[in-house]
Amino acid sequence: MNAVAGILKALRFAAAKHRDHRRKGPGASPYINHPIEVAELLVRKGGLFEVELLQAAILHDTIEDTDTTAEELENEFGPAVRSLIEEVTDDKRLPKQERKRLQIEHAPGLSRRAKQIELADKICNIRDVAHAPPAGWSLERRAEYITWSRNVIAGCRGVNPSLEREFDATCAAAETELRARKNASSDPTGGTV
Question: How many domains does the chain have?
Fold first, then answer.
């Protein structure tokens, strides 16, 4: 199978698996936009064109968020793609705080390719947290997500300087955005001059 066909197969599979899912932001955009954005970031900012890596990026949330099994992924895309996806998949049977702690703990032991998927995923998520957060997320919760993401990515450093610079710039821009919103909400004049 050629590269384009392999990527399109992953897109079709992910679109079918995520067909009923929406992002948690106010626009409730189709969930498939997220894995597409992660893969596109790996290409555009990371300079990465490996088919298996891009397939894994497109499929990275299928085990975690759908009824997809690891065996199904291996049958469709091979053991390398399955392994990459398993590396970046949280065990949803665990409490959320434990999953978050384990992401920080396991990040240094991820493969080089899994670390790059993790970087791209966190960049995309931080953009959403800054500009289109889930309903009910306070400024404090959004800031905590950025701090936690920084802790995860600390264990992923040294694999792709371009993606790491993009991550740092995204965090800085998000923190600036949150500070501006906090200052505006605490301004007794309502932000007018």
Answer: 1
Helices 51-58 + 79-87 axis angle, to 10: 50
DSSP state of 88: T
Q: What is the dihedral of CA 27, 30, 35, 39, to 10 degrees?
A: -80
Q: Which residues are catalytic?
A: 64-65
The whole-angstrom separation of Cα 38 and Cα 161 is 17
Contact 23, 128 (CB under 8 A): yes
Supply the DSSP symbol for 31. T
Q: Which two tokens stand for residue 58?
A: 């497109």
What does the alpha-carbon distance between residue 21 and residue 7 come to, in Å, rounded to a whole number? 21
Domain that holds residue 152: 3-186
- Give the SS3 label for residue 158: coil
| pTM (predicted TM-score) | 0.93
Q: Per residue in 68-123, pLDDT tens? A: 999 999 999 999 999 999 999 999 999 999 999 999 999 999 999 999 999 999 99
Nearest 5°: phi and psi at 178? -65, -40
Question: At 67, which CATH number?
Answer: 1.10.3210.10
Region class of 84: left (phi > 0), else alpha (psi between -120 and 50), else beta: alpha
